[in-house]
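Our preliminary data section would be incomplete without showing what the modeling component actually yields. Below, a chain of 433 amino acids is followed by its predicted structure, encoded as tokens that our downstream tools consume directly.
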Amino acid sequence: MSNFSYLSTHPEYSLFANSAIEAEKVFSTSPAMCAVGCRKALELAVKWVYAADKTITMPYKDNLQSLLHEPSFRFAVDRNVWSVLPSIVKAGNLAVHTGHSVSAADAVFSLRGLFDFIQWVDYCYGTDYVERSFDETAIPGEKVTLDEKKIREQESLLTQKDVELEALRKQVESLSAAYTASKQQNQQSRSFTAADLTEAEAALLSDYVTNGGKLLVVTDFTTDTPRLDAILESCGMTRQAGLLIENDANHYPYGYPQTYLLPTVQSNEITAGVGSNMMVYTPIAQGIVKHEDGDYTFTSLLSTSSTAYSMEGYATAETAQKADTDPEGSFDVALAAENTTTGTRVVWINCPNFLQGTINQSVSGGNAQLLGSIVNWFDGEQTTAVISGKSLSAASLTVPNNMIIVLGLLFTIVLPIVCVVAGLVICVIRRRR
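Predicted structure:
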């Protein structure tokens, strides 16, 4: 049984089911055509959600990029699931419009991203939801005959008439009241996890780490990743239960919640690339516990103040008040582990927002500087000097329409008149002297 074959028994998903099934079927024949199929199936699945959910607003344009980035859609979808969707679109577009070769790994990535999105759809709106995991070994291995020229022309693996698709969409839309009403209840009573590794990926990653690999892990504590956690535990690191709360006002920005951490950057060879006047920003983070009874040695990279605590009951808490059972002290937010025998080096940053561009800009590139230092450490190089990069791109100045006339009058009439008058006044004053 393939990963998407279950959709054939769900008539409510007829709008996108066949496209998803076909995308997986052609993988072994052509990863590029698989990417094209994943993009089309994603487009139809996204349109299904817009038709089914009354809380999601249709954007001005109905192309896939606009649909994905409409805020009411983007923030409704699980963020780990949504983060992969633009990559599915990009791979499909490259395969269709440029003839760009798509690797098998990229096609699997698209299939898995599509699978997770459809699982999220079923989790929110399905009547008989079952939590499933993507299995790479279940992808069909049989070769099929493909007309790649025709597929590129129609940008789809299947020949589907717009009238038929619109009829299916309207059928979903007619049930939107029921789908919308059941969504909240389903999310409260069901579980959904999309970010964890598959068994095959976990085995591959574990073997890589065991044999001297270099690994950077950035995690989100709100998402369960038991297989990834098991690999980190084998390196002597586990999660500190709870959400980190900082009590020292010097370790979080003024006017922001105490969960928006500005941790201490520990001084060592790994963080040497972070200037002494730089800060690193880790909002919404969890602590890391190190176990020093194994083969790994540890280096703290980022840590809270000694007055911080980990709120274990954060999911139901209404205030940031510390409970009697909440552990208190200095917690590692980023930790490096090294096995000198095998050469393995692992860095774990337990903050899902660490790599976001806006977060990095908030501290003038401090997060990026730390990331560069970590990469240097992985390569066995030591950072001795810090030279901040400069952008060569030129930003355009946009002037609002209502200001064009005002600025035109100011610079072409008002300022010249002022200059002439000022000159006359100065001349008169000098003559009288």
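The longest helix spans residues 401-432. The mean pLDDT is 88. Preliminary results of this kind motivate Aim 1 of the renewal.
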